[in-house]
Design goal:
The structure holds two protein chains of two kinds.
Chain A (H helix, E strand, L loop, with lengths): L7 H9 L5 H19 L2 E4 L1 H18 L9 E5 L26 H7 L4 E6 L33 H8 L5 E6 L5 H7 L2 E4 L19 E6 L2 H11 L29 E5 L9 H16 L3 E5 L7 H16 L17 H12 L2 H13 L6 H24 L2 E5 L15 H5 L6 H6 L3 E8 L5 E7 L5 H15 L8
Parallel strand pairs in A: 2-3, 2-4, 7-8, 7-9
Antiparallel strand pairs in A: 1-3, 4-6, 5-6, 5-10, 9-11, 10-11
Helix pairs in contact in A: 2-3, 5-6, 7-15, 9-11, 9-12
Chain B lengths: L4 H10 L6 H18 L34 H5 L5 E2 L2 E2 L7
Antiparallel strand pairs in B: 1-2
Classes of the chains: A alpha/beta, B mainly alpha.
Amino acid sequence: MDFTDLTIKSASELLSQKKVSALELAQMSLKRIKEVDDKLHAFLYVAEKESLESAKHTDEMIIADHEHSALTGIPYAVKDNILVKGMQATAASKILENYKATFDATVIRKLKQVSPTMMGKTNLDEFGMGVSTENSAFGPTKNPYDLSRVPGGSSGGSAAAVAAGEVLFALGTDTGGSSRQPASFCGVVGFKPTYGRASRHGLIALGSSLDQPGILAKTVEDTATIFQIMAGQDELDTTTLPKPVPDYSKFLKENLKGLKIGVPKEYFAAGLDPEVKTIIEQGIKKFEELGAQVSEMSLPNVKYALSAYYIILPVEISANLSRYDGIRFGLSAPGKNLEEVYYNTRSAGFGAEPKRRIMIGTYASSAGYYDAYYKKAKLAQGLIRDDFKKAFEKVDLIVTPTSPNVAFKFGEKTSNPLSAYLEDIFTGPLNIAGIPGLVVPGGLTKQGLPVGIQLIANHFAEEKLFMAGHALEQSLNLKLKPNI
Amino acid sequence: MSISLEEVNKIAKLARLTFSDAEKQKLQQELSAILDYVDQLKELSGKTSFQITDDPDAVNLVRDDVVDAQINPQEFLAQVPAREGKFIKVKSVLE
């Protein structure tokens, strides 16, 4: 048995047939991490002792109960901006280097009820600010397909860990594309739910009106299995809605007869890499073969999405990051008086990108500039939401590229922050509109780099993403695996 | 440059961040480039309203104000950089 070939579904079947134990799965995961993580640096913390103890306990439970959930005993990893009680949660920032989480995030609490095995915490861009993991205070993660390239970000550690077969799935977060763009760069499935579908409680806040927990996994079916556990209302996050969660497994079929798919022309304009374009177009052709009706459409205001995003997000960042004051938790740098403690702690603890965004956010929300920036950004947000709303009156799903390009080389976008911001051009509009998205691997370029196809659905229509994504994946039958 | 060095200084003060002179000059350039980009939003000046048809399920949610036993005050206090007993120690706020 090759651990790197396992999916949640196949590993769970092996567990049922007693061909493998939870402990053996955890040991295989640790072995793989030891083999490749020196090269990749996907993990900021490997929970060796904790995972083995947890897996032993799970095996005893399976023997006692004679049945288990699909996720029981499955090795997984968690992005280091999600709280797991008693474990580090650095958000890849020096300011939280020695912080230990005092409670479980709701998504972790829900997962723990079905006992998957947590293998450790993965790398990210500091607080989730970035598209490459190059903004991690603890060094970048490398792309398993090409070690000279970035894995994407900010959930780059989670994407690389799944792609390299270190774990069978990983949790990420997604504020502007942070789970979907790394999925595209690393050839795995990436998912962002509707805003309000899954709890943000215990996620280290970046942009509270945009953040959602995300999933990185090997198949669409596995993603649906994980999301079944994560979805739903949480009284600790009052933005989650009390809508019933459907049984997602019922929607996984191979035929898309009657499904209406829209292809927005704005997503195929200049700047899109021709090879990426070809792979997306091949995916769209597959959808037609599967019975879907494809039509061209327009989202006229989506061109304002990035501008709105890079106002709304920094404004929320400047407010959210004010809690790192050196008083209650995290780093505390000495000073003569209280104000100096604030200055010294924040200046020593935050990296260049958080500082840059705090500065933009403070500027855009300060007296005299609020109307010119924040108010305009909220207006653009309303127009973009309306664009999508109108589009979903005519189509069930929208299909687009995930990123204009494949994984780029280290250092390529570090000298110019704006060029890195433009990476979110296709993924950010979903967060601005609050709608869900799924990235499914579409193929490899001639150079052997993965390209992901983004599927977009209306609010709370995640089942349509899983349905179409599963059908596409089965029909493409890629079985991507990096040579590492 | 859509932002001056004086403005960089002012924002840094509001944000409680210190920068070297070289960092300030770099920030002036970077922030100006970002602000120039988002200036496209000025095109929206004529548009004053949009129609959001709110989700009928989007209602205000509240929960009962009850003590949650999941949270242990001792574990929270263990994360505090400086304390005396159960109190958080800070520099004097009023001079």
